[in-house]
Write a structure and sequence with these properties.
The structure holds 2 protein chains of 2 kinds.
Chain A: H1 4-14, E1 20-23, E2 33-36, H2 41-50, E3 58-67, E4 70-82, E5 85-97, E6 100-109, E7 114-122, E8 131-133, H3 142-153, E9 156-158, H4 195-202, H5 209-212
Parallel strand pairs in A: 2-7, 8-9
Antiparallel strand pairs in A: 1-2, 3-6, 4-5, 6-7
Chain B: H1 7-15, H2 23-32, H3 44-53, E1 76-80, H4 88-97, E2 103-107, H5 108-113, E3 135-137, H6 144-159, E4 184-185, E5 190-191
Parallel strand pairs in B: 1-2, 2-3
Antiparallel strand pairs in B: 4-5
Helix pairs in contact in B: 2-6, 3-6
Classes of the chains: A alpha/beta, B alpha/beta.
């Protein structure tokens, strides 16, 4: 199979205006991926599917990722005049990357028996109602998994034929797999409370003012 | 029974071919040997429950082979597996639809407390938050022998239930509720998260 750079070049030529980045994976898996801009994603996806050399006709897996705001430290070597002498000095700059939500698609080809090609799409921000184009019209197998991402991460897929919650009930408002999700505080009884469970358990202990001092411990509303 | 006739005399009479019994004994003997479970399963515990019903373990030896597809005809609810919060209202509704007397076996770690998924966002931390449970079987999943053991424990319980008097069985007391409120789907959790009339968690002793 072609390298990701070759796929990127051909896809950008086939879909005018498309902007594709290769996201390198420095880990042991070495499974780098293609980041596709949201506007042209359906067209690029269709190209990946019908191109005779690629024929990525099987979308095996769709997942979501929640990226929080983060700062990345970059070290660059700059030549500077120090005490009248030119020296190489390492300068660190901090780059602040705002958070976003991501949908990751794993594609294989049943025809050519190759894969996986990983493609990604990113939302503009982590706000409620963050949007991405749906790739269900291209790969039917993405339908339930895009619903699951909508349910657990809150990404709205535009063009999805039936975007409803799939694991949680319809009345539910949170998105449990997001990193800022706070589970309901229905602590009742834990035979061996430990760590953060112990901390939460303490809020539910009955106050013992004669032993613990004047301030009684009161339960707090976790969604207050 | 023992109030009316001496146990030794009764055994002696039985040896002579005279069988003396009471209405309560006869009634409970019939009930405990024809416990019809409700036919439903929730997770991997259900596979063990099916194995219990199949020929190798053969729950028919205890009169429990008639798995009923309708709650109207069932005596026993075997909660076999993980109860998700989305499924919990349906479980309570099925329990409410069963006629008295009815019994519940909480099978496996998940049905008891949520088990390995206790802190999961969509897992109920034990079915005893909403309905009363008669027998708990630990295990993940419990083996068929364990389910048979729970079944025999339930038979013992039924056998010991009184039909009259102050300590008569719960289902004969009109004041005892036989239906429990079905929890509603809330914005963040089931509402209420537990039925306080049914669920009594133990107090933690802290030092």
């Amino acid at each position: 199979m072609e390298s990701l750079e070759q796929i990127k070049t051909r896809a950008e030529a086939a879909v005018p205006g498309a902007k594709i980045d290769v996201v390198p994976n420095p880990g042991p898996a070495q499974q780098s991926s293609l980041l596709i801009d949201n506007e042209h994603a359906p067209a690029v996806a269709r190209f990946l599917r019908i191109d005779p050399a690629l024929r990525l006709d099987f979308c095996s897996n769709v997942t979501g990722v929640d990226w929080l705001d983060r700062t990345v430290k970059k070290t660059t070597k700059v030549k500077k005049l120090v005490d009248g002498e030119e020296k190489e000095v390492a300068e660190t700059s901090e780059e602040r990357i705002p958070g976003y939500l991501e949908a990751v698609y794993h594609l294989y080809s049943m025809t050519h028996k190759h894969g996986a090609v990983v493609i990604r799409m990113r939302t503009a921000d982590r706000a409620e109602g963050a949007r991405l184009p749906s790739l269900t019209p291209v790969w039917r197998s993405a339908e339930l998994q895009e619903r699951e991402i909508f349910d657990l991460y809150g990404i709205r897929f535009e063009g999805h034929p039936d975007l409803r919650r799939i694991l949680m009930w319809d009345e539910f408002v949170d998105h449990p797999m997001r990193k800022d999700y706070r589970e309901p505080d229905d602590y009742e009884y834990e035979p061996t409370p430990h760590d953060d469970v112990l901390e939460r358990a303490k809020q539910h202990y009955a106050p013992r003012p004669q032993l613990d001092g004047a301030e009684p411990i009161t339960a707090t509303d976790s969604h207050g | 029974m023992s109030e009316q006739i001496d146990e030794a005399l009764r055994r002696e009479l039985q040896r002579q071919g005279v069988w003396v019994t009471s209405m309560q004994e006869l009634y409970n003997w019939g009930r405990k040997n024809s416990i019809w479970p409700l036919q439903f399963g929730l997770a991997c515990c259900a596979i063990e429950m099916i194995a219990t019903a199949a020929s190798r373990y053969d729950i028919a030896r205890f009169g429990g082979e008639v798995f009923r597809p309708s709650p109207r005809q069932a005596d026993l609810m075997i909660v076999a597996g993980t109860v998700t919060k989305k499924m919990a209202p349906q479980i309570v509704r099925l329990y409410n639809q069963m006629p008295d007397p009815k019994y519940v076996i909480s099978m496996g770690a998940c049905a008891i407390s949520g088990g390995p998924f206790k802190e999961g966002y969509n897992v109920l931390k034990g079915i005893d938050r909403y309905i009363p449970v008669d027998v708990y079987i630990p295990g993940c999943p419990p083996r068929p022998e364990a389910l048979l053991h729970a079944f025999m424990e339930l038979q013992r319980k039924i056998d010991s239930q009184k039909l009259t008097g102050a300590d008569k069985a719960e289902h004969l007391d009109p004041a005892e509720p036989s239906e429990f409120p079905v929890p509603a789907f809330g914005k963040h959790d089931l509402e209420p998260p537990a039925n306080r009339d049914v669920f009594h968690p133990p107090n933690i002793e802290r030092t």
